[in-house]
Amino acid sequence: MGKRETDYPHTISFRVTDEAWLAIQKEIAGSNLAPHEWCRKAALDRLTKDFGLSKSERLLFYYSIRMQYLLTQGFQLLAEKNLIGERWTEIRANAKQKASELTNQVLASRCDLKP
Question: What's the pTM?
Fold first, then answer.
């Protein structure tokens, strides 16, 4: 037996439901990781890479940014008495196409939030 590059003196273990176990198995399918290795990597990645938001939270954030953009544009058009169907359709398409750009702008303007 060879010596590991990194010494791991502490052990963490936990139990998971059958549903969680199947989700882990699905996640590691096609990789060379064992379930315990994947869990260790996931935990350490979470600590060192500062993901911030989960997949669900990022999705909700993404849609809330689009909604904010649409509300802002819609109220501006109403205030200018310039809200017509054709213009609104254009703004909705623009919000959908530029959602990632809008999200990045919001994140960049908030130094305490990270993508």
Answer: 0.50
